[in-house]
Amino acid sequence: MKWGSWALLQAIPSPTFFEDRNSENSRLKFGLEWQVIPLSYSFKVNKYVSNLSFFYIKPIKKFSGSAEIFFQPSLIVGKYKYSELKKFSYKTGIRLVLPVAQNGEYLAVSVGAGYFSQKTESGILREGITFEAGIFSFYGMLGLKFNYNQNGISRYNMGIYFKYY
Questions:
Q1: Per the domain annotation, does 26 fall within a domain?
Q2: What pLDDT, in 10s, does the model give residues 86-138?
Q3: Residue 61 lies in a domain
Q4: Each residue of 30-88: pLDDT tens digit?
Q5: What region does 150 belong to: left with phi over 0, alpha with psi -120 to 50, or beta?
Q6: Nearest-CA neighbor of 39 among 80, 68, 6, 74?
Q7: Residue 55 maps to which CATH number?
Q8: Pair 91, 97: CB distance under 8 Å
Q9: H-type helices in the chain, by residue range?
Q10: Is pTM beyond 0.90 here?
Q11: CA geometry: angle 28, 33, 36, nearest 5 deg
């Protein structure tokens, strides 16, 4: 029951805006992004609890200070008008989450880096380094995230981070 309800809540995506641009025009495109964290290492846990977590990560272990591996699939609602990217893209990498106020329950920040992949309708593949920064509150359930995809066709992504526990 615990894993079933958790998996169902994790399937709810976060709303995100993606840059849709070409050499002449630019606009924001609405999409959905999922947050998958297969591995997390928490810095501030007591000696009776394991520092490692796999997929099922409790908010107190994440936002009190952790390093994690992430995978973020994205799906665009509608179609890119200017950049002609396909609807699906993804990012993967590593992220560091640091508490700012009340052991991260009131306020936490994150920085991360990784790899992104974007493909156009004509088959052109763009891959490269992605950088991200985030700020989280309400026990880690709500936040704002910003991504910069170096050398990407859609370089900027901004989103509201929703994570349900």
A1: no
A2: 889 999 999 999 999 887 778 999 999 999 999 888 888 889 999 999 998 88
A3: yes
A4: 999 998 888 999 987 777 888 888 887 777 777 788 899 999 999 998 888 888 888 89
A5: beta
A6: 68
A7: 2.40.160
A8: no
A9: 2-10, 59-63
A10: no
A11: 155
84 lies in which domain range?
A: 2-21+31-162
pLDDT computed for residue 60 by the predictor:
73
- Give the per-residue pLDDT at 103: 79
User: CB pairs under 8 A, 24+ apart, for 43-50?
Assistant: 43/67, 44/99, 44/103
72 belongs to a structural domain: yes
Q: Which distant-in-sequence residues (6+ apart) come within 8 Å of 91 by Cβ? A: 70, 71, 72, 74, 114, 115, 116, 117, 130, 132, 147, 149
Q: Which residues pair with 16 in a beta bridge?
A: 31, 159
| Rounded Cα distance, 59 and 56, in Å | 10
20 DSSP β-pair partners: 27
Tally the domains of the chain: 1
Q: How many whole angstroms from its chain centre is CA 114?
A: 11
By CB neighbour count within 10 A (0-12 exposed, 13-18 middle, 19+ buried), where does 73 fall? middle
Classify residue 154: in a domain, yes or no. yes
Distance of alpha carbon 77 from alpha carbon 8, whole angstroms = 21
Determine the Cα–Cα distance for residues 25 and 148; give it in Å rounded to an integer: 19
